[in-house]
Fold these 2 entries.
Entry 1:
Amino acid sequence: MNTDSHRKELLRKLSRNLMVSVPVMTVVAMAGMSAVSENGLGLIPSAEAAQGEAEGEAKGEAEGEAKGEAEGEAEGEGEAEGEGEAEGTSEAMKEAVQRPEGYEPYDGDTESLARKGEALFSDTSLSSNGLSCATCHTNGAGYADTFSKEYPHFVAMGKSDFGMDKVHLDEMVQICMVAPMAAEPLEWDSEELAALTEYMRIEQEKFQKR
Ligand code: HEC
């Protein structure tokens, strides 16, 4: 279990790494997220890239990516640098978004959870950067093809940024909370997490029928 100070330290680390990945993702979001399903990702420079490279350089990469260039670059470069440190960071990242031991999700009425989840989906106050889930995911946008698979499954961002081989849907909500939304993960037993997870389940059904 995480102590509070452990969590604070972890989140401090995360937000430092995310200073780079968030602008990149925003650029991609604006570009219509068309890159996502094509290459299974590569749009989030990994934590190591943030540490190894000057920020100016990372911005250059973001621009290149938005234009559909240099897509493999961010990843390749990240891997070449600072691997020792990266491992520790990714372990901490994983801990923030992985189901805790003895996890018992909030148990509520499915319909009211779905309604609350829908409202939270467009709530920018969940993030620290002015984004809401809807900024990237309105009308089924912004998902890779993996979203149509039954959970738990492999998600590129889960692997590249959090070192997870498979993610559950509630873990995916936490991943997007921590990475693109640059926020703390939601409390595991909170109604908010249950609500967003239920709403995403409905979004997934729509996505599967596309
Ligand atoms: C800045 C853009 C951005 C924001 C904001 C964002 N996401 Fe995502 N989300 C992504 C990207 C990019 C992917 C694709 C990741 C991948 O496939 O590796 C994704 C994928 C997902 C997936 C599907 C993963 C799969 O393939 O199974 C879910 C579910 C999801 N996001 C939920 C959310 C929720 C809930 C929020 C709000 C709390 C949110 N996202 C906010 C960018 C964003």
Entry 2:
Amino acid sequence: MINIQKGTKDMLPKDSYKWQRVREVVMELSRKYNLKEISTPVFESTELFVRSDGDSSDIVNKEMYTFTDKGNRSITLKPEGTAGVVRSFIENGLGNEILPVKLFYISPCYRYEKPQAGRLREHHQFGCEIFGANTLASDIETIMIAYDFYKAFGIEPTIHINFLGCDKCKNEYKETLRTFVEPHLPEMCEDCHKRYNVNPLRILDCKSPICKDIVKSAPKMNECLCDKCNTKFDDFKNMLTSMGIKWVHDTKLVRGLDYYTDLVFEFVDDDVTLGQNALGGGGRYDNLVESLGGKATPVIGFGIGIERILLYLENKGIEIPQKNTLDVYVASNTDNENYIIKFISSLRKKGFGVESNLMDRSLKSQFKYADKIGAKFVIAIGDDEINENKLTIKNMSTGEQIKIWSNDIEEYLEKNV
Ligand SMILES: [Zn+2]
Ligand SMILES: [Zn+2]
């Protein structure tokens, strides 16, 4: 027997209704917020993710699913959704159309890491990117799309926010942080030595207890913001409050990816019984389009891991309603297959969901089966019914059973299904 690859999961039929619900919610949001869908390939040139702008991140360093193909090209399975969308935005000149360009995707993502609970090598993300706008309204709208997604599943997360400032603030803060960290460097982990040179902000994010302890007393980013950035961040916080969204200013939030500027955010469940749960996040990356060779274009976006959300709902005991979609089971007790097949076909043409006797079961076991698969109605057809032109129809939830003219069946179903 051939087994599934480590860190991957089958989406089984018993769980498909959950995924269908996710897609349904996303489609509804795309309508309400006027988002257009984009889909980019699973694999891209490795250089799309390993950029030459001097930034580095753990995902890029350690976790990418990279291989050389038969044409000797370095290929990477996309570790996240944004870079591919930005590549496509530039390559297809989407920025030449009217701005903003508001996009969403549901995409598989790949990270080569040690599989552990909730950490998969292949997972799926619902993501959103808004190109061309850098306004309070576009910030809030992005947050609201994600927030409405959570709310559709009965989740009310707290949003953890931080403000990395404009390029000037960010660069000044990097220097402030370097100056602070330098005397402690000998005690710090190897990764932080690299970060010190390449992107000192990531030091704030280090998981090593020694580093964590050192940065506790580091100068805070928000203490180094310019007036313009300060006002922008205050307006954003006030707007969140007036929208009734719970927020926390988390001065250490920098996010795992390095292309963020300005605003970063994470959606978190603060329920201590479950441990802090990051349910998704994003931010602004106003330099990314330019750094990938496009015309300078501000972008804000987020990504939400779907498997993560489904696991979270399961742990919280929140159920996704399962819709009963089978309208009719046609139980047959006749050799006149021609009649049965045509009858079923006519019901489907009218839009009803129909199942029938594909397994040559007896009439009795057909009723049992119809009950098991949750059919709302069973229509029983034998030779007598065909000759009389009257069919027996049973409402499976009330048990009520009546005979009606076969010509009236569709009208009856339309009224009662
Ligand atoms: Zn600034
Ligand atoms: Zn460290």
